[in-house]
Each structure stands twice: as C-alpha cells, then as structure tokens.
UniProtKB/TrEMBL annotation:
Protein encoded by which gene: dxs
Quaternary structure annotation from Swiss-Prot or TrEMBL: Homodimer.
Cofactor(s) needed by this chain: thiamine diphosphate; Mg(2+)
Highest taxon of the lineage: Bacteria
Protein name: 1-deoxy-D-xylulose-5-phosphate synthase
Pathway assignment: Metabolic intermediate biosynthesis; 1-deoxy-D-xylulose 5-phosphate biosynthesis; 1-deoxy-D-xylulose 5-phosphate from D-glyceraldehyde 3-phosphate and pyruvate: step 1/1
Pfam families for the chain: DXP_synthase_N, Transket_pyr, Transketolase_C
PROSITE patterns, A to Z: TRANSKETOLASE_2
EC number(s) on file: 2.2.1.7
Keyword set includes Thylakoid: no
Entry keywords, A to Z: Isoprene biosynthesis, Magnesium, Metal-binding, Thiamine biosynthesis, Thiamine pyrophosphate, Transferase
Record's GO cellular component terms: cytosol
Amino acid sequence: MEHRILDMIESPADLKVLTDEELQILASEIREQIIRTTSKTGGHVAPSLGVVELILACHSVMNCPHDKLLFDVGHQSYAHKLVTGRLKDFDTLRQYKGISGFPKATESPYDVHPSGHASDSVSVALGLALARDLRGSDEKIVTIIGDAALSGGMAFEALNHVGQAQTPMVIILNDNEMSISRNVGALANYLGHKRASKSYTRTRDHIQSALESRGGWGQGLVDFGRNVKDSIKQMVIPDEMLFEQLGILCTAPIPGHDISAIKRTMRVVLEADGPVLMHVVTKKGAGYAPAEAHPDVFHGVSPFDIATGEVKKSSSAAPKYTSVFGKALLAEAERDESIVAITAAMKDGTGLAPFAEKFPNRFVDTGIAEEHAVGMASGLAIAGMKPVVAIYSTFMQRAVDQVIINNALPKLHTVFCLDRAGLVGDDGPTHHGVFDIAYMRMIPHMKAMAPSDEAELVHMLHTALALDGPVALRYPRGEARGVELPSEPRVLEVGKSRTVREGNDVAILAFGRMVQEAEGASDILAAEGVGVRVVDMRWIKPFDEAAVRKAALECRLVCTAEEGVIEGGIGEGILEALAERPPEKVPPLLVFGIPDKFVQQGKVGLLHKELGIDAEGMARRIREKLAEL
Ligand SMILES: Cc1ncc(C[n+]2csc(CCOP(=O)(O)OP(=O)(O)O)c2C)c(N)n1
Ligand SMILES: CC(=O)[C@@H](O)[C@H](O)COP(=O)(O)O
Ligand SMILES: [Mg+2]
C-alpha cells in the first residue's frame, strides 16, 4: 500500500513542515496502517486509534528525542512508533523478534521508559524533570496517561509529589471514559462531571477565542513568553478543584481529535514554569467503526477481519483457563454466600464478567489499583468474607507487600487467583507472569497450587476455598487442555502430587503447564528406551517432599520443570530440600525454567522452544545429561 505522507515521515522533525490539514490526512493514513497491521498481528487497536491526533500534535510541537514524550501503559503508542522510524518494521508488531507493542528504550531513542504496567509514567516523568533541573538543561517532559491509569495508586503518589516539586512538566490526561471496560471510580465520576459542566464549554470557547485572537504561531510567539501565565490561567476551569488544589494547573477539556486545538494548547502549556495537567477528551477506537462500537473488544484484540470487525476465533476446541475459572467461581459463589470476587480493572480479562452480572453486590472492581484491591481483600477477610482476588500474575507484583503484610501475616483466608501465569506471548517482558512462584513461595503461611489442566483448576479453586489462610492459584493465559470438567469439584490433599507417567530412569517433577511438556518429553524418550516418570506436583507450597525423595531414590536423574524464573523458583526449593540429604543419595539434577533474563515477546510455543522448556528441548537436555552419567 502506498502512503502519500506517512512514507515520507522518517522522524518527528518531518511533521513540523506539515500543515494541520496535512497532519489530518496523515492521521487517516496512520489509522489505516494500524488497522491493516493489527488485523494480522492483533494488538491494542482501540487505545492506539484514539490518540493518533494527540501524538501527531505532540510530535509537531515537541523536539523529541531531546524532549521526552512518555506513554503510560504504552498500549496507545502505535502512531508514535510509526512517526519515529518504525514504519518499515510495523508489520512485525508484537511478533517474535519484531517490534514491541509497547515503547521500549532499546528499540528506539524516542522511547523513554519500558511501559506496560499502568500508572508509572508520572513518576518517571518527574524523575526526568528533576534530573533536567539538576543538570540545568532545557528539555520538555510530557507524559500521556489514560483516565483509568491516572486512578492507579502510583499516579496519585506522583501527583502528590509533582504538586510540591513545582517543576515544569506536562501531564496529558487522555480522557476517553474507558479503562478496558468502562472506567470506574470516583475520579471517573469527577472527570465526567468536569466534561459535562457548563464551565467546560464556556471556558473552552473562551480559550479558543483567546488563542485564536493571537493569530498564527509566528505572531503568537512574540507575546507568548509574556502571556504564558495568562494563557494558562484562561485555560483553567474556574471551579476546578482537584488538581488545582494539588498545585497542578489544569486546562479545560480539549477536543482530542482536533490537531490545531491540541497544538495551540501544547505550545502554551509547554512554556509554563510549573506542572500542568492538560485534559484531552478522545474517543477510544476513533476512526474504525467496530472499535468505536466495541472499544472493550478492540482494547487488546486478536487478528480480525477489517471489513466486518469480526475477531478471528482460536482453532482450539478447549476452553480458556480464564473462563473455566470464571464459571467455577460462579458455581462456588452460588453455594457460598461469603465469597466476594475482586478484580483490579480486569473484569473481562480475569473471567469475572459473569460473576459481576450474577452477583453485583459481591463483585468489586477497584480500577487499576492492585495494592488497594489486595489490601481491601484483607479487610473483607477480617470481617469474615471469603475474598477471591483475581489479578494477572504480572500485575500482582504491584501488591506483593499487601499479600505479605495485610493477608499472610494475619493468616487471613484470602484466595489469590493469578491469571496469565507463565509466558503470555505477544505482550512480552512487561507482561510475562514469571515471578509469582518466587514471590509467593517465599511468604510464610502461603499455600500455592498450579493446575496442569482445567479439571485440576476446578478442584484447586474448590480446595483453596475450603482451606484456611492465604492460598494462591496460578494458571496460564489461553486455552486449557480440553479434558472433561468434573461434575463435582473435590478438595485435594494439601502437598500431595500425582504421578501421570511411570518410569524409573528419569523423573520430571513438573508444575502447571510444564506437566504437558514433560509428558511430551517422556513420550519422546520412551521411544528411545528411556523411562521418564512425570509427576504433576500440583502444589508449589507445600510441595510433595515424599514424591521428591522417592524420585531421588529410584531415578538416575531428577528434573524439575516450572514456567517461572529459576532464581528463587520451586526448582531451587526442591534442590535445597535434596541438599539436606547425604550426597550419595542425591542423583544429578536438572532445573527447567526461565533463566536469569527478561524473555521477549513471541508465541508461547516459540518461547518455550527458545528457552529449551518445550518437550523436545527437555528431552534433548535429558538425553545429553544421561550421556554424561
Ligand atoms: C498495573 C496494571 N494493571 C492493569 C493493567 C491492564 N491494563 C492495561 S490498559 C488498561 C486500561 C487503561 O485505561 P486507560 O489508562 O484509561 O487507557 P485507555 O486504554 O483508555 O487509552 C488496563 C487495566 C496494566 N497494564 N497495568
Ligand atoms: C495493555 C495491557 O496491559 C492489557 O491490555 C494486556 O495486554 C491484556 O492482556 P490479555 O490480552 O492477556 O488480557
Ligand atoms: Mg481511558
């Protein structure tokens, strides 16, 4: 496809010579490119379509990479990628060895920080601004943060500091009324009120005409320095309270698809001598009807048909772990009125939508606020409810302190359901859930399980709810194994494994999804006459020490396999346990897991292969090890 303007844009400097009309044409071309590429790769379509004009306006007015443009979460940065030299690689978006779906400093000098986890960008921006002040340099610092990300605790902590620091920086609030689902919380209500208020229209018109009266940029420049403060004052809503009271000047809401308006405002706020929050109103999914109509579906979407917007279905007949979890929890909640389900802005992603529908009073969406969600869960547990906190493994990293202090220390019965545990695929290193075994395993009183299939997940959820004290379950993204689901869930014996393949040459003690790979390795080696026992360990904590000792006694080689980091992982735990035995009773050991590096993006199968934790890779290393013995 030919791009009239986009093909000529090598860097943001090329945008500066374009008229606003040409920029508007470029915006359409960028939208077309985003839709075309993501229809094949999948990706964060609606967030990125919503900010095309905003990004073009920022880059037209700023001088990046000298100036710094940050993206909170970074899932809306596709237009930024396209105008910062990555058009030719854009079709590799989110693919193995391709360009990342998020800003990534190692990919481009225009990308500032490793986005992916929400609400961190104001802190990073303030750090950059403070460093600038210390160095005495002059770069502008701007971050684009969504209305939902702004409600995260880290962003609030940063605003608290920004208001005190009073150093120049611009926080662009991209207000589209959406998180992944509809945005929730008091801040969302406040912004709604602000958008709707009469003063908004009045002030916006006033600013518009005030700026209009300055004439073109060239002429405006002359009196700009003198009038910056006045101009910003004109933009401030008179009855504005929240940000103003924190010491952060706040503009009236600006129409976020009007390039001229954004550029004009940007030019003013960039000259302020303190922090400014620039409130921009956009439409999530703008310019593509299916994404505008279903911004939740097109928030992060699999490949889709451009003409109809129909999302391509997976070829697997097996259900996703997430939906098995959602249904199983619903069934549990029908039997037990004390169950309260909690999500931090991931109602759909964690499979809790049916629960929210059926039990709205026992469902809590905290918004992007993992620390608060886990802290609040402890209060519910203290008061005798059974909180079930469903949070992606990677995002639970935010709340490890609350797991430890608020829940584990008082031994509260809180159930932590860690979805997306293990490698997640196309989202890459910010989203792989590879640390939870290590961070859950270290916590006193914690019990932790990993199902090897969906039936096990049902039993494990039931077990977690029947136990006492804090319990964690970890299960992967995507399709399960297609086994029959139990008609009645049962309580599993704590710390007891099950052997799923017999064999006395080698034992693989496997956890969660690795059981399947271990079975594959066992099949491969069986054909070579090597008997590989596969133990589905089920329990990460406490793990089945008897099964470990038995394997050590009976097999020539013992392996552990987990889809998590090796450092601090359960393989290390098993090694430690074996190290207490007399050395002559400990066979050679192999630990399969994620080595000490950040794993990049790609389909999970490819990543397993790269890391040597697929069936073939494990069989190969076992074969090599046996040859050494
Ligand atoms: C700490 C953390 N929790 C949850 C998420 C998952 N997540 C990614 S984007 C998003 C919604 C973001 O909404 P908003 O900031 O308003 O941006 P928009 O998508 O509307 O542009 C959520 C919940 C995340 N990336 N990081
Ligand atoms: C940007 C972000 O953090 C989420 O949108 C995430 O990409 C969702 O991942 P899933 O597709 O696994 O729900
Ligand atoms: Mg939003």
